[in-house]
Specification:
This protein is mostly beta strands and about 100 residues long. The protein has one domain. About 5% of the residues lie in helices and about 45% in strands. The chain is built from one helix and nine strands, in the order ββββαβββββ. The strands form three sheets. A four-stranded antiparallel beta sheet has the order 1-2-3-4. Strands 7-8-9 form a three-stranded antiparallel beta sheet, with no helix packed on it. Strands 5-6 form a two-stranded antiparallel sheet. Strand 2 and strand 3 form a beta hairpin.
């Protein structure tokens, strides 16, 4: 395991270009994904991508800086709009189950 202990768990799906995802449940439904990606220095960074309309999104919608994404299709996963990490600047799309750099 890496020093920063943020690396994705073994059951995470590799979606390419140093990115991995794992679906997350909340109140009995899929609420979004945990998303891991490599920073330029090779260490892992992690983000949360909430699905629009999920119980989680409905509950936290009024929180400042809250964002949620449309699920265009679940399998293979396609989300809109793009995903931008506020920590390290990684930016791209999940399209047809693959990471596409913006």
């Amino acid at each position: 395991m890496s020093e920063n202990k943020i690396e994705p768990p073994p059951m995470a799906f590799n979606i390419g270009d140093g990115h991995a995802i794992l679906f997350a449940e909340y109140k009995g439904e899929t609420a979004g994904i945990n998303e891991w990606h490599r920073k330029p220095d090779g260490t892992w960074c992690r983000g949360w991508v909430a699905f629009k309309g999920s119980a989680w999104a409905r509950e936290f919608m009024g929180v400042p800086s809250f964002e949620s994404w449309d699920v265009v299709q679940r399998d293979p996963l396609t989300l809109t709009p793009s995903i931008l990490c506020r920590t390290c600047g990684s930016h791209g799309h999940i399209t047809n189950g693959q990471w596409v750099k913006a």
